[in-house]
Amino acid sequence: MAVAPSRNDRRIILHLDYDCFYASVFEVEQPVLKTLPLAVQQKQIVVTCNYEARRRGLRKLQLIKEAKQICPDVVIVLGEDLSKFRDASKDIFRYIRSFVWGERVERLGFDELFLDVTEMIAYNVDLLNRHDLEHSFFHLDRLEPTVGFTYDATRVCGSTYPAGPDTTFGTAPSATADEDASELRTRLLVASHLAAYLRGQLEHHKGYTATVGISTSKLLAKLVGSTHKPNNQTTLLPPYATTDRAAPTNVVDFLDAHEIRKIPGIGSKLTQKLTKYLTEGSALVSDTATNPDRVTVRDVRLLPGMGPSLLDRILGGPGAPRDIGARVWGLLNGVDNTEVIQTGDLPTQISIEDSYGRLDTLDGVRRELISLTGSLLRRMRTDLTEEDNGSDSVTDLSSETSRHPGLSKVRWLARPRTLRLSTRPRSTTDGAHALHIGRISRSAPLPGYVFHVDENVDALAERLVHDQLLSMFRKLHPERSGWNLRLMNVAVTNMVEAAGDQKQSSGRDIGKMFQSQGSRRRDAFTEPETASESGPLNLQHGEALRPVYFPAAPPVVNDAWEESDGEDTTMACVACAVCGALIPHFARDAHEVFHLASD
Ligand code: TTP
Ligand code: MG
Known about the structure:
Elements: E1 13-18, H1 21-29, E2 38-42, E3 45-49, H2 51-55, E4 62-63, H3 64-70, E5 75-78, H4 83-97, E6 105-108, E7 112-116, H5 118-126, E8 136-139, E9 148-151, E10 159-161, H6 179-206, E11 210-215, H7 218-225, E12 233-236, H8 250-256, H9 268-280, H10 297-301, H11 308-315, H12 324-332, E13 350-355, H13 362-384, E14 385-388, E15 409-412, E16 414-425, E17 428-430, E18 433-435, E19 440-445, H14 457-476, E20 485-497, H15 510-523, E21 573-575, E22 582-584, H16 588-598
Parallel strand pairs: 2-5, 10-12, 11-12
Antiparallel strand pairs: 1-7, 1-11, 2-3, 3-4, 6-7, 8-9, 13-20, 14-15, 16-19, 16-20, 17-18, 21-22
Helix pairs in contact: 5-6, 11-12, 13-14
The structure holds thymidine-5'-triphosphate and magnesium ion.
The site of magnesium ion (MG) has 5 residues, from strand 1.
Pfam family, one: IMS_C
InterPro entries: DNA/RNA_pol_sf (IPR043502), DNA_pol_Y-fam_lit_finger_sf (IPR036775), DNA_pol_Y-fam_little_finger (IPR017961), Rev_trsase/Diguanyl_cyclase (IPR043128), UmuC (IPR001126)
Region (Disordered): 383-403, 500-538
């Protein structure tokens, strides 16, 4: 069954993923580390390692113990304090954003960006001189004709899918002979040079390398980018659609080999349902019966009778959106209309959390709450204030808009109104079954004194814990004992921007602003079954594992990029059969190793 091409297939989208990001942050600080095998540790796990370490057999999400055995001279650095990653991430985001017209850049987690460069590419394609393509000039600024770079528009820059030498401008193979494909080919070709330029500038000016995918949607750009890593780029070449329904397109060819669980938007539950249907049925296309974890897009796509209605029957049910079949069928065919949502400069909420082996006393809770709250208040000062060097517009010298001793004034750019405490009690066992208990939360107004920047953060943290958080905790856990927590999260939400002069401004509710963005954003790559109230397994202090996509409408609005620092209630997870913990897909292997090691 054919699929209507995406209404947005005239867009040009780039996806950037920085290479071994956390490790690179350390390398940029200390370039000597580049030549050594370097691993970043959080808890007992290597969250990432540089490519020298990978060359020697280390990999992401490996146990530290194992990494040391494989590579005894590995240099291990602690990555539990996320501030440096956050700062680097913001800096890179702003730098890249400065190139993109209309600032159409969406930040996903700390190390991924989507860029909608449709307008820049259309402008530059219009200006191509078809008689001298070899000496083309890419205009980065419409008003400054000399700002830009020269490039050779006779060929695509970097790797392509499909691979091969046939990437020359104007010599499209017969399947792409129709006008649309050749026009798309030109736009992708020009975009490939922009991608190369951005990667070069990023490396030269900031010291980071990135892997880039170039296509017409977020889904395809992300997937194609990951085919050549690191420090590389891949363009998904046309044809994307054919008039002949039986003829394969490059999009279908490309997607077919992917495991369904690797397709953003097809989360663990959908994967489970599809796998069950395939393995229970007799209509298997490949050997998925022996390897149900490896069901591919092709396996599903080529099932007899496959299409939106059959998918509706397989995937539908209570809680599933009505268009689930059509949506998943679209994804399997590479159709993704989700927009690049411009990421703002301010977070909609900030949260800090940690996970615990055993936390079952009030004293321990108080201590941990003070530590989490201290980190949270420091984050608020970093992310929500700016120095104001004597601007007349800031006249409020109250303690909320204050001076660092001997320095310029500090001003709050936004003030959260709500304080939220969440906990996740450890699962209990009921006979043979592990009972999974989700995250539970309590909110209260955030007292104004937290904005007093003259006051010592640790003293403020203690005050907030005693004034507010302990009583919120008691409401969540009225019993004095008998509970044991795996996780606590302290958050400030309901952000109100303090625009301009704080005395005059009533403030703009950016929470609302982002909420509407968020609801659109959650449409992206949607998995219909809401991940339960529980967040993902947390391996590290203060940050849920890197967010992947944003499936389903979550119980808690959590849509800003800063939320990568806190809970991500929407990540696609699988339940561990041993301990019941919810594990993000990409961490499952590491988690299994963890059980094996501790057994
Ligand atoms: P990734 O992009 O998955 O990894 P990476 O950038 O380190 O390596 P690659 O070259 O393969 O892209 O994740 C980005 C950062 O997120 C990574 O540097 C460390 C952090 N991270 C976690 O904190 N927990 C995790 O489970 C993973 C996978 C990553
Ligand atoms: Mg990366």
